[in-house]
Amino acid sequence: MQSLLNKKIVLGISGGIAAYKTPELARQLIQEGATVQVVMTQAATQFVTPVTMQALTGNPVFTSQWDSSVSNNMAHIELSRSADAIVIAPASADLMAKLSLGLADDLLSTLCLARDCPLLLAPAMNKQMWEHAATQRSVERLNKDRVTLLGPASGFQACGEVGMGRMLEPFEITEQVIAFFQKKPLIGKKVLITAGPTFEPIDPVRGITNLSSGKMGYALARAAHAAGAEVTLVSGPTALPIPYGIKIVSVITARDMYDAVMAHIAHQDIFIAVAAVADWRVSEVSQQKIKKQNATSPELQFEQNPDILAAVAALPKPPYCVGFAAESENLLEHGAAKREKKRIPLLVGNIGHQTFGKDDNELVLFDANGHKNIARASKAILAGKLIEEIAHRL
Ligand code: CTP
């Protein structure tokens, strides 16, 4: 299932160089199942053409309030009435000032004033413009009017300067739009998640690790954030982009992961251990690369790594603990036994162990009442369902 299925979004584009990213945003919103209707200001058409937006969305693009093709010639009323939200990206300083004052001198500002649906703005402007007292007054007024601001972010700007005012990336805006529509059962809750593999060095160029792409843990971090939680993600080495709005702590070894988890565990409401932690580490890591010497192979001694999940579950006041089970056989038997051994309320098993790196999966949940399956779906959907299950049990 797509996260924006059946949602009608009016995508407003105002005049700013960040408009070059809006076609990609439209594509992503559509990929999530939304129907996208684009409305552009005249200035926006200087940066991206209506033809591009029409080709991507499959819908005619509106740029003027004097468009005779709308049935009763009331495009501003018509467009906002049927929408679930208006998302404007980029929202220029000029447009934000207009909207904060209730001005309506073109189609986009008019339909914002005439709307009866939520309005989300992704500001984009030069840092001086963002910091200007006039823009900050607009922000204050828009906040009071319950307009949702997505960003801006800080970073390199098209004008060559570095600072606040950069538009969020299209994938970040899409995620925030998805989060906006989702239920927020974890508002006010803190969630700590481990994800990815750990890597245990043998020498400076070699090591042992477990199979794990990190996709499930990262999807859970996103889903928990979308459900309103404050999320910290302790991640082993992965190739995944850092999810928006989430605090990330990068680690390499199981002991690093243990230390990072213990450093952040106080005041957490939920701990979800998704990481494929290496159970053993090499006792003596060679400081130099081990060279091949004739035909003899090196003999490695191992010692056990700390069990992070069991250690958290054994704390005097543990958060609600959720574990994952990587089993290659007898999942139902091993899963139930593992949940009891780790003394945790909920354990999640992967049905079939060949899920590493894949985008979908099928899960089985073990709790004190027995077990229950969650049908095959993308990891993003499963993560959303799992967060709902956890929130429900809390
Ligand atoms: N886990 C952990 N720290 C470890 C090992 C595992 O926090 N040192 C967590 C995993 O993140 C997962 C759960 O414990 O949530 C189960 O991991 P798994 O590898 O399936 O089980 P093990 O406890 O290692 O048991 P075994 O390898 O014997 O199946």
Give an overview in words.
This protein is α/β, with parallel strands linked by helices. Helix content is 32%, strand content 25%. It is built from 13 helices and 19 strands. The chain has helices spanning 22-31, 50-57, 75-81, 93-101, 107-113, 127-131, 133-144, 170-181, 215-226, 254-264, 308-313, 331-342, 379-393, and strands at 8-13, 35-40, 85-91, 119-123, 148-149, 153-156, 162-166, 190-195, 199-203, 206-209, 230-235, 247-250, 270-273, 280-282, 302-304, 320-325, 346-350, 360-367, 370-378. It has an 8-stranded mixed beta sheet with strand order 12-11-8-13-16-17-18-19, sandwiched between helices. Strand 6 and strand 7 (162-166) form a beta hairpin. Helix 1 packs across helix 8, helix 4 (93-101) crosses helix 7 and helix 8 crosses helix 9 (215-226). The two termini are 25 Å apart. The model has no long low-confidence stretch (mean pLDDT 91). The site of cytidine-5'-triphosphate has 14 residues, from helix 11 and strand 16.
Q: What is the compact description of this entry?
A:
The protein is an alpha/beta fold and 394 residues long. 32% of the residues lie in helices and 25% in strands. It starts with 7 loop residues before the first strand and ends with a helix.
Residue-averaged pLDDT: 91
Neighbour order of strands in the largest sheet: 12-11-8-13-16-17-18-19
What are the low-pLDDT stretches, counting only 5+ consecutive residues below 50? none
Backbone shape = elongated
Helix content: 25-40%
Distance between the termini: 25 Å
- Secondary structure: number of strands: 19
Secondary-structure-derived class: alpha/beta
Q: Note the beta-strand portion.
A: 15-25%
Question: Gyration radius, to the nearest Å?
Answer: 25 Å
Tally of separate helices: 13
**Main sheet: strands, sense, barrel:** 8 strands, mixed
Could you say which small molecules are bound to this protein?
Answer: cytidine-5'-triphosphate
